[in-house]
Write a structure and sequence with these properties.
The protein is mainly α. About 70% of the residues lie in helices and about 0% in strands.
Amino acid sequence: MINFEEELKKFSPSLEVEEFEDALHNQDVTDAVELLMHMMRDGKED
C-alpha cells in the first residue's frame, strides 16, 4: 500500500514547473471575460 505521507516528503517540484509559474505570473494575461467581450464587440461590427 502507498504511504502518502512518505511520498509527500520525497516530493519536490521540477524546475520547469517553477519556471513556468514565474513566467506566467510575470505576463499580462487576458482573462476569459475580456476575451468574450472582445469577441462580442467584433461580432457586432460585422
